[in-house]
Amino acid sequence: MAYIKFKELTKYFDFKTEIQPQKLPNYVVEYCKSDEKLILGYKNNKDYILFTDRKMYLFDRDVAAIYYKKIHIIPYKSISSGAINFKPGKAELLFSLDSGYQVHINFVNMNHDKKENLKRIYISMFE
Questions:
Q1: Buried-exposed string 91-101: b where 16+ CB fall within 10 A, e elsewhere
Q2: Under DSSP, is residue 102 helix (H, G, I), strand (E, B) or coil?
């Protein structure tokens, strides 16, 4: 019997705009459990990310195919290590999951206040 690992999460995500959870599309919020606290979301032209108090939800939509989207739900407890990298005007979140997969999320057009919001989310992931 052959076993092949699924390596999709090595993809890079780039997010530009911070968005409050109540302004996210319904298809994003409907994946969350009712007892999860929605913290903050980000979007770019086609993708969304939502941070809750327990999980990270990545919505990867394809621009060419309107009905195509991949939803990655990553519980914080499955993150084995992480790093946050601040650069002028941007920030990066780098994660290694228990499975060995890597997740790299970029945030652009970041001012000081937006970086502080991201820092609070990052700290809460590892509590």
A1: bbbebebeeeb
A2: strand
